[in-house]
Write a structure and sequence with these properties.
This protein has 64 residues and is mostly beta strands. It has strands at 10-13, 25-28, 35-40, 46-50. The radius of gyration is 17 Å and the shape is elongated.
Length: 64
């Protein structure tokens, strides 16, 4: 069983591109702002990843 620890680093695999010889395996830092830094485990390339915000909808009939 896995607990939901929001401070866990996330891995993202990216398909190999024509100009790039590495099939990146990104380790992405937890979201702490608009972007999170990531580094490829295989080649060491660094990149910033955009974080998204979830929108909370109000139920019908609720007042603000």
């Amino acid at each position: 069983m896995r607990d939901n620890d929001s401070h866990e680093t996330v891995a993202q695999v990216e398909p190999q591109g024509k100009a790039d010889s590495c099939q990146h395996y990104w380790l992405i830092e937890p979201p702490t702002g608009p972007t999170s830094d990531g580094v490829c485990r295989l080649c060491g390339e660094k990149r910033a990843f955009e974080n998204s915000q979830s929108v909370v909808a109000r139920p019908w009939g609720s007042s603000t």
